[in-house]
């Protein structure tokens, strides 16, 4: 099979587009507040949610009525990605609108530098009169910056899901929803609010006998359902992995989470139960918004900090550049949209670095020039602006205790390239996503794709040279 390659001219045009897009973003100001009333902003961020783990993304089994309703009433971004698939770094990029290359957060101990915390979306909104709250997993640095918010009930990292409180068994998702409700109940009437609810679910309790412990209220869900096993979970795809991935942290966690057909079914059922628990929490928050008369002026953004391997390629968790790891659910709901603009599906590539500039744009605030993402508000309004054709992927978490190889590369609409940067020989992978969406055939060694491989290498280097490095 022949593959249409990327010519040098196309690559040069793409680089020009990248620079033009960055300049356009920096020049964009307040353009998305047609009524003049500043909207409230509610951001719900899950942890390790596979992009297809919602009914509105075509999953016929999982029960997510609130997420589905937001998509039906808002805009569903079907090609949304994170630029780095690990909790700490992705969350830093969400806060700042910056690639990890520029925000310097590559591990769990490094906090946002003070000057970048000052240009994060919560800090900017607070300076412009927003009442700000954060509830849940913060995940950036060992000590969360509690003073940066008006209301903060946050965790530096992960905690236990099921807890005994005053003789009652409670699940972390419900407890976090309680705190989010408390914030909404306490919001002043004379200022808009921005609440970030960051759940831990459905992230696993690593190496636990029951890695995805759900709220007891959802135990009966999916009990009699046989969940279809994905194609990539077949053993031959693990056997095709390079040796350094066969012995990686992702494989070790697979051994705990998915190592038999029975274990796979049990774990995925629990994983779905945890997501349904988050969905229930969203419903609770929307009920409070209705009761307080806030619903008609509250924008809701729903997404995840990265994707997840549910046993695909014989792996668990995330970290690597394959689609299930980098692709995420993404819904943007604005109750002020006219009826004709609701329920749309947008295929343009949205990134986690777009979240901060989008929120500021919706609030009528110009994004700081350091932000490298672009506002998604034009897509929300039904426009089709000139848009990115590619973006930079990187994963630089380096831990002697964990076998998680580092990688970097680029993804376009139809091609993906990445290289393993701390593995001997820097092995490369190249996929034609249009012809091979499951990323089964690595074309890096295919002579017919030599020009495309060279162009993608140059594009990766251009990002490294162009993006400010901290």
- What is the SS-derived class? alpha/beta
In total, the number of domains comes to 1
Strand order of the largest sheet: 5-4-8-1-9-13-2-14
Contiguous low-pLDDT stretches (5 residues minimum) are 6-35
* Number of helical segments with 4 or more residues: 15
| Gross CATH architecture | 3-Layer(aba) Sandwich
Which bin fits the share of residues in helices? Answer: 25-40%
Q: How large a portion of the residues is in β-strands, by DSSP E?
A: 15-25%
Quick one: how many beta strands?
19
Determine Rg (CA atoms, Å).
Answer: 21 Å
Q: Oligomer, anyone?
A: single chain
Mind telling me the CATH superfamily name? Alkaline Phosphatase, subunit A
> What is the arithmetic mean of pLDDT?
92
For the biggest sheet, the summary is: 8 strands, mixed
What report would you give on this structure?
By secondary structure, this protein is an alpha/beta fold. It has one domain: Alkaline Phosphatase, subunit A (3-Layer(aba) Sandwich), CATH 3.40.720. It is 32% helix and 18% strand. It is built from 15 helices and 19 strands. The two termini are 42 Å apart. About 6% of the residues have low confidence.
């Amino acid at each position: 099979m022949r593959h249409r390659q990327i010519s040098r001219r196309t690559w040069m045009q793409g680089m020009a587009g990248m620079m033009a897009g960055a300049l356009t973003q920096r020049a964009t100001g307040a353009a998305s507040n047609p009524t003049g009333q500043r909207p409230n902003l509610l951001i719900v961020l899950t942890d390790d949610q596979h992009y297809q783990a919602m009914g509105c993304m075509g999953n016929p089994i999982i029960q997510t009525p609130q997420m589905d309703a937001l998509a039906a009433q808002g805009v569903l971004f079907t090609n949304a990605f994170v630029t780095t698939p690990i909790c700490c770094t992705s969350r830093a990029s969400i806060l700042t609108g910056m690639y990890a290359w520029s925000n310097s957060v590559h591990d769990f101990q490094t906090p946002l530098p003070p000057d970048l915390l000052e240009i994060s979306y919560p800090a900017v909104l607070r300076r412009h009169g927003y009442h700000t709250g954060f509830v849940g997993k913060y995940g950036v640095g060992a000590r969360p910056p509690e003073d940066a918010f008006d209301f903060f009930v946050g965790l530096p990292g992960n905690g236990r899901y099921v807890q005994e409180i005053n003789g009652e068994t409670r699940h972390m998702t419900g407890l976090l929803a309680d705190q989010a409700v408390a914030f909404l109940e306490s919001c002043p009437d004379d200022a808009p609010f921005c609440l970030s609810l960051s759940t831990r679910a459905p992230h696993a309790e690593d190496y636990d006998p029951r890695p995805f412990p759900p709220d007891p209220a959802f135990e009966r869900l999916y009990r009699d359902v046989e969940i279809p096993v994905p194609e990539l979970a077949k053993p031959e795809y693990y056997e095709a992995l390079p040796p350094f991935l066969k012995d990686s942290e992702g494989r070790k966690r697979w051994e705990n989470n998915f190592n038999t057909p029975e274990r796979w079914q049990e774990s995925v059922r629990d994983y779905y139960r945890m997501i349904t628990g988050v969905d229930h929490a969203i419903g609770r928050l929307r009920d409070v918004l209705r009761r307080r008369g806030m619903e008609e002026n509250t924008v809701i953004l729903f997404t995840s900090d990265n994707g997840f391997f549910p046993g695909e390629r014989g792996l668990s968790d995330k970290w690597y550049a394959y689609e299930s790891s980098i692709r995420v659910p993404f819904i943007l709901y604005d109750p002020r949209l006219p009826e004709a603009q609701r329920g749309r599906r947008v295929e343009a590539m949205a990134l986690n670095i777009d979240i901060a500039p989008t929120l500021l744009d919706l609030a009528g605030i110009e994004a700081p020039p350091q932000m490298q993402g672009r506002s998604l508000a034009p897509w929300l309004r039904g426009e089709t602006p000139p848009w990115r054709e590619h973006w930079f992927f990187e994963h630089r978490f380096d831990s002697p205790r964990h076998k998680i190889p580092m990688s970097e590369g680029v993804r376009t609409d139809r091609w993906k390239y990445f290289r393993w940067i701390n593995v001997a020989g820097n092995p490369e992978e190249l996929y034609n996503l249009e012809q091979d969406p499951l990323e089964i055939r690595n074309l890096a060694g295919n002579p017919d794709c030599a020009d495309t491989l060279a162009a993608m290498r140059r594009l990766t280097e251009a990002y490294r040279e162009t993006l400010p490095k901290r």
